[in-house]
Amino acid sequence: MTKSLTALALALLVGWASGQYVLDSINAGGMGSLVFNEAARVVYGTDDYFGLVAISTDSNKVISRVPADGAILVAYSVTSAKAYCSFGHSFSESLLVVDGHTHQRLRALYLLEAKMSLWDPDSDRLYVACGDENEVTVLSCRNDSVLTRIHVGQYPIRLVLNRRHRRVYSLNDDDESVSIIDMDGFSVVRTIPLGSAPESGWYSPVSDRLYVGGTFEVVVIDGARDSLRLRLPILGESGLSMCGCLGDSLLAVGADGDAASHIRVLDAFRDSFVHEMPTGRMVLSVAWSPTSALLYCVSGHDDNLTVVGDRVSRVVTTLAVSDGPDAAVVTPGRVYVGHINSPWVYVIRDTCSGIAEDHLSGRVCALLEARPNPFVSSVLIRCLPEAGRDAPLRIYAQTGVLVRTLAGGGSWHWDGRDDHGRPVPAGVYVLRSTGEAGALLVVKSE
Fold this sequence. Notes:
Elements: H1 2-19, E1 22-27, E2 31-37, E3 42-47, E4 51-56, E5 61-66, E6 74-77, E7 82-87, E8 94-99, E9 105-110, E10 114-120, E11 125-130, E12 135-140, E13 145-151, E14 156-162, E15 167-172, E16 177-182, E17 187-193, E18 200-204, E19 209-214, E20 217-222, E21 227-233, E22 240-245, E23 249-254, E24 262-267, E25 272-278, E26 283-289, E27 294-299, E28 304-309, E29 314-320, E30 325-331, E31 334-339, E32 344-349, E33 368-371, E34 379-383, E35 393-397, E36 402-406, E37 411-414, E38 427-432, E39 438-443
Antiparallel strand pairs: 1-32, 2-3, 3-4, 4-5, 6-7, 7-8, 8-9, 10-11, 11-12, 12-13, 14-15, 15-16, 16-17, 18-19, 19-20, 20-21, 22-23, 23-24, 24-25, 26-27, 27-28, 28-29, 30-31, 31-32, 33-34, 34-37, 35-36, 35-38, 38-39
């Protein structure tokens, strides 16, 4: 028994060392938005209870928490080195301003119904969509003063930047329209009806077109003429998350919660779809890595991360993550994935090398799952329905020595201690239940 477990651990460790994909897990809170501060090497995330959270990408530890009840989304000004976080509920929507060097609160601005913020690097201005106010507020990031308020369509909640023609597109939810804002004249030059609520939007500087994802279609708007170009129907998808990549293509990701979604690649010059691939259900966000040429699709319904490679033509793998993945951001060599139903932020290795091994995705063997993995203080281990649920769980060190036995029941909490109550050292451990149900688990030291 000891020899076979040692062989199992060593075999898994070889794969782990060469192809480890989930690098870390961070107890940061439920993240609904993530943004990268490259200068400080910090990822900012918004948590509904804790406010703005700063995570060091060097240590993968939370280094700051700035209280902001009901934190929603965060934007970052590289020029002024400030993070802007919309927060609050009902009649008290505000905007939190955080120092990008110290990651501490500078001030809070009262902006009723502040929802999404968009930073313009050319003017160092912040554009804030103010929901029920039907306005986009423009701020100077230099002194955080309000420059003007621009009346747009009903309930603006998404903003898209067109630097080429100095335009901001306000995607208005309630009246199903796009308001086109002249950034120099601080005025709406045109409002285009869509016919359905806009789910997402992305501007391609190469083709000079705005793509708006709605119900069952992508609406294409000409960036030079501020006019509707065409509508591209997408059958079977109720909403879209979108991002641009490859220089000349747009990726439209179906976000239907009731059926399997698809990644559709749209040629931004010919206005036609090149190919499509199935993914998990309810794709809430996508993140593109120009370094690895991988696309990361966050599937909130299926609790997984679909990784697409080979110039966005093949699903490379699907990684099981924690409960309710909602947001992802790419940093040099890593991808940070936040969840809304669990406090864990997963750190994913941004590479396709060894990706097929997928040994630390939470399910090394199909019948056991452990989350978070790696962990520091405690971990939840569950036996999937296909496995025997009455057998005990045994936890072994790499050497094959049994360190802990937990009674049967199909679900266990392990506190990182052995059968004598002593904390086990940091390292890799093998979980074994009935039959072939097994998993590899990493314990972190503080």
